[in-house]
């Protein structure tokens, strides 16, 4: 694409030409159809996204954590709910 623009300043013409330095096109790949949300677990998880076009961000939820008061006056943390 070529864009020609002219500026007029005090009766002087200043021609300006913009040329594309590079172009970005859509890749030809299958769309990602899996889940875009994941909750961490103690087991490895893989979202099969290699070579796929994604339409949104992936949301990784926080690891469920529970805080429980203990008899020593502190808290016990339970990871994973």
Brief digest:
The protein is mainly β and 81 residues long. It is built from no helices and 6 strands. The strands form 3 sheets. A two-stranded antiparallel ribbon has the order 1-2. Strands 3-4 form a two-stranded parallel ribbon. The protein has a two-stranded antiparallel ribbon with strand order 5-6.
Which geometry do the CA atoms define? Answer: elongated
Helix content: under 10%
Whole-number mean pLDDT = 83
β-sheet strand percentage? 35-45%
Give me the count of strands: 6
Low-confidence stretches: none
Order of helices and strands: EEEEEE
**What spatial order of strands do you see in the largest sheet?**
1-2
Distance between the termini: 56 Å
**Structural class, from secondary structure content?**
mainly beta
Radius of gyration from CA coordinates: 28 Å
| Count of DSSP-assigned helices | 0
User: Can you summarize the main beta sheet?
Assistant: 2 strands, antiparallel
Keywords:
81 residues, mainly beta, two-stranded antiparallel sheet, two-stranded parallel sheet, 6 strands, 0% helix, 37% strand
How would you describe the overall organization of this protein?
- This protein is mostly beta strands and 81 residues long.
- The chain has a domain at 29-81.
- 0% of the residues lie in helices and 37% in strands.
- It has no helices and six strands.
- The protein has strands at residues 2-9, 12-19, 37-38, 59-60, 65-69, 75-79.
- The protein has a two-stranded antiparallel ribbon with strand order 1-2.
- The model has no long low-confidence stretch (mean pLDDT 83).
């Amino acid at each position: 694409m070529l864009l020609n623009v002219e500026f007029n300043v005090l009766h002087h013409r200043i021609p300006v030409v913009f040329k594309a330095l590079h172009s970005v096109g859509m890749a030809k790949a299958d769309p990602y159809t899996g889940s875009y949300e994941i909750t961490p677990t103690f087991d490895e998880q893989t979202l099969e996204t290699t070579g796929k076009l994604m339409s949104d961000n992936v949301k990784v939820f926080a690891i469920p954590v529970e805080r429980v008061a203990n008899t020593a006056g502190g808290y016990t943390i339970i990871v994973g709910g």
